[in-house]
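Give me the fold.
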Amino acid sequence: MKTLNSLFLLPILVGFLLISCKSQSQTFPFILPKEKPNQPLSTSMQRNYDNYMAPRPEDNELYTQFKYTQLKGLDYSNHDGTITRRDPSKVIFENGKYYVWYTHRQTPTPPKGAKMANDTIPSADWDLSEIWYATSTDGFTWKEQGVAIPRPPKPNLGHRSVATADILKWKGKFYMYYQGFSEASGTRGDDCPVLASYADSPDGPWTAVNKIIIPNGPKDTWDQYSIHDPYPLVYKDKIYLYYKSDFDGNPDLIRMQGLATADNPLGPFTKNPLNPVLTSGHETTLFPFEEGIAALTIKDGNEHKTIQFAKDGINFEIASIVELMPTAAGPYIPDAFTNTKDGRGITWGISHFINYTTWSENHAILVRFDCDLSLDIDDPEMKKHHVYHRPDVYLSQGLSEKQRERILKENNKAKN
């Protein structure tokens, strides 16, 4: 009888052991696999393997922390708001030194808004500005060289302000793209076209083209009013010029990024039919990476504070989520204009801090940022997972009076 019972129970015992082993084999391992394991995974775990370049941030070539350093050599008139430097271009290396161009405003007063603006009083931080440039041998100490692109006389486009420049080197010549304002910013909005100048040397002299390079879109399209932040790269034997536009305005404007391509620096440019190609980002910063293009999506939109990547330069996907991203970043990209199919990434650049003191003395300053978004270095300090903030950073983000009043009313209502 015992033998029969044992024979009867044996299949049940074997089945139980198989189920138990199978259950244990499906448990996620203690050591995080570098490759996606062949087992059922939660949606979040699948995303960790499918959406990013590595399951651990420190192994992700497009993940980094950002470090900041104040620049030496630039004067800001004791930060009284009369001098601003903002929106730097890409940094390039020519003639044994680094070059950067930027929006420069020097006015008798800080910005006063569109209603108080006149021929000498600026409406906004970039109003009544010109494009200046500086050079450096180490990227930390800069010598300001003066104006590169002045405001043209009336009635030429840009006679009110020229701002937000970026640089292209193409077949031995240099091309500067920038925004040209013909009225004070804020009069109707922040509307302006993209203009261009060219030179044989990064030191100039620059010759203005005096025509619109990227036209606004037709009525009722996303870029009908503004084409901002022109940002050129050389990719797939063409000039890929990325730009930002703001639209909707219900209740606030939304910013997204578009792309226009050309065979000639002065056009004609053809806008990509899939525009906008990036749904987020206030400024426009991209660089060649591996076979494609990587983008810093800075502020604004559902995917702000992310680094994204597109194998074709058009269809971007999130590659990492980052902290303290540089505002208006102008990186040093050695292969920005080489038509590379093996982009090496970036390690540093210039960005800006706005409202450096108070809004009544509103101005921006240029700073250096460093990072590890490069295939050629490995800096573990740049791959840490979080930044520690002092409590006063959080406490400075306090409730407004309107919010306090709402909470007080809710408390009183709850008591009754």
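The CA atoms of residues 344 and 375 lie 5 Å apart.
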